Amino acid sequence: MTDTAAFRNALPFWLSLALPPLVAVGVTQGGWTVLLPPLYAWALITVLDLLLGKNEDNPDPQTDEGDLVWYRAITLIWLPLQAATIYGAIWWITRSPTLGWAEILGLMFGIGVASGTVGIVYAHELLHQRNRLERWLGDLLLATVLYSHFRTEHLLVHHRHVGTPRDAVSARYNEGFYRFFARVLPECLMSAWRAEAEKLGRVGRPVWHRSNPFWRYAVLQVLAVLAAYGVGGAFGVLMFALQAFFAVWQLELTNYIEHYGLVRRRLPDGRYEPVRPHHSWNAPQRASNWLLINLQRHSDHHTRPDRRFPLLQTYDATEAPILPMGYPAMGVLALIPPLWRRRMNPRVRAWRKRHYPDITNWSEAA
């Protein structure tokens, strides 16, 4: 494949580049423009999903990594763009008396859309790779949203225990998002700590050993906060914390959608069946997969966690459950629990009948 063709094919996955300029418009203009980032990431992308339809084509998983340079590039350049967006906004706001509290709150929410919907998704892609630089970029991105333990929780807990009671972020059937969010914040931190303690214990090291990545997490997050203080003082730290909260909220909203109501069968020996494509919700909508770098091909990600996002495969409805809309639109629906249950619970029940027709008591299934 020529460089021009490779660039052209990868270009749609660069939709996220619109977010930093939209934040800049909101910061400098105020008013309704502070809503431009969520309007872009949620509303416009959903409209594009409707207009552009679905992409159910599967790329060749044996594609040479040299042909993926332009796909990978967007994840590699995002850290400086996100840092400039966060700290640049803090610098401007703390020196501009024209923005009111409502506008500042809206701006931090919009920045959280950029650092959560995009930044954490890119960090997720980077942390799954073996390249040391990519893993460090993933760590630095997570530090800018004060959620560094996500690396441990995702790699050591979620991928191993997805669809079981040991995985905090596998949303339970009939569990509303707000209850889920309040539950997972402490549970994810504790499960990540336990996972690292168990890992160290297996090689005879105490939990406070210097190889525990929580030391690195703490240092990177302290540096991120100090940078916010250096740019904007105590008020800058408050704004930094606000955008971090909104980013984490975005992450957990996505986590809620990805596995809602889906469980793995517990085997007679107490273990759980292997993870299969039918243990993740997928969405083939074209535009939202561009923005989320194919995160919605989630079943294949759990099958091959190290597979780079351009090569992720999609499945039909007989193999994996399909959402009625892309993740952005489903996220809005999840914010209204009665509507979410009305739309999703029948789909979960249909999934149970399709894949586990022999199970009658689901309270004992997991």
Any overview of this molecule?
With 366 residues, the chain is mainly α. The chain has one domain (3-356). Helices cover 61% and strands 0% of the residues. The longest helix is centred in the middle third of the chain and has 47 residues, at 213-259. It starts with a helix and ends in an 11-residue tail after the last helix.
Care to give the gist of this entry?
This protein has 13 helices and no strands.
Task: Summarize the topology.
Layout: H1 3-10, H2 19-29, H3 36-52, H4 69-93, H5 101-127, H6 132-143, H7 150-161, H8 177-202, H9 213-259, H10 286-291, H11 298-303, H12 327-334, H13 337-355
Family: Belongs to the fatty acid desaturase type 1 family. AlkB subfamily.
Keywords: Cell inner membrane, Cell membrane, Iron, Membrane, Metal-binding, Monooxygenase, Oxidoreductase, Transmembrane, Transmembrane helix
Subcellular location: Cell inner membrane
Quaternary state of this entry equals single chain
Query: How many domain units?
Result: 1
Q: Given the C-alpha coordinates, what overall shape results?
A: globular
* Overall strand count: 0
Question: What radius of gyration results from the CA coordinates?
Answer: 21 Å
What is the ordering of alpha helices and beta strands?
Answer: HHHHHHHHHHHHH
Approximate strand percentage = under 5%
Structural class: mainly alpha
Average of per-residue pLDDT values: 95
- Residue stretches low in confidence (pLDDT < 50, at least 5 long) are none
Count of discrete alpha- or pi-helical segments spanning 4 or more residues: 13
Q: How far from one another are the termini?
A: 47 Å
Helix content: 55-70%
Sheet with most strands: none
